[in-house]
Amino acid sequence: MNTETPPLEILYEDNHLVVINKPAGLLVHRSPVDRHETRFAVQLLRDQIGKFVYPLHRLDKPTSGVLVFALDKSAATQMSEQIRGHDVTKRYLCVVRGHCPDVGRIDHALREDPDKYARGQHREEPQEAVSLYRCLAQTEIDAAIETYPCSRYSLVEVQPITGRRHQIRRHMKHLSHPIIGDAKHGRGRHNRYFAKELDCPRLLLHAAAINLRHPVSGELLTITAPLDTVFSGLLTRFGWPSAVDTLLSQGPLGEPGS
Questions:
Q1: Count of C-beta atoms within a 10 Å radius of residue 3
Q2: Phi/psi class of residue 176: alpha, beta or left (left: φ > 0; alpha: ψ in -120 to 50)?
Q3: Contacts for 198 with CB less than 8 Å, ≥ 6 apart
Q4: b/e for 218-248, b at 16 or more Cβ within 10 A?
Q5: Could you list the mean pLDDT of each consecutive 10-residue stretch along the chain, which spans 258 residues?
Q6: DSSP string over 204-244
Q7: The pTM is what?
Q8: Catalytic residues
Q9: Are 221 and 213 in contact (CB under 8 A)?
Q10: CA separation for the pair 245, 249 (Å, rounded)
């Protein structure tokens, strides 16, 4: 049996940046949160391209999509300044429970999620957290998962303005539209139904696109990541096969995000 790790999908590469489509279930780098994991995007990408890489932002382990690395310290410094200055726009796709409003802004401060491995670093006071969202599609299925004979779901685009830990997942829960597959902030009955009945046992959150300025040329780059077969198969089943195209055709939600 072939046990080799498949190569990471590279979306963009030059002498200063490399961007991958991170698969769901892959950690960005080694973490005490998952001590038994042996595969990390940083190490896999370094071995694949034969160069040292600097991760510029993070994606949660169960989240898929666009992940950007610098290939030198100068590019890493310049890109980090863009991110801190909210000059980078990230756009995510997610499937949530219920029929989400057409468009809106979530301005809900968040306390840091408790982390037993980060002693002395936990902030007690809430930090500003802002996300913009837009509902792209809705559906209703004939399944009595909770108290109603049918169950409703929405495909939502989210553009985070700030970059708090688990921000999108926590903001969608705050909106009473938790993301399907979210074991911590979602609804267990819906998660189990999607895993068992719809062959979709993953967090339905995907970093679909990023807009940034190249650290050397200054060119504005828009980099997109296709969905994996599990996520795209579900969207086809729900009649939403062109979700990423729809997101891109409508443009960003009006404010730069980080």
A1: 4
A2: left
A3: 234, 237
A4: eeeeeebbebbebbbebbeebebeebbebbb
A5: 77 97 92 68 96 95 97 96 91 97 96 60 80 96 91 97 94 97 94 96 97 95 96 95 86 63
A6: -EEEEEEEEE-TTT--EEEEE-PPPHHHHHHHHHTT-TTHH
A7: 0.91
A8: 60
A9: yes
A10: 6
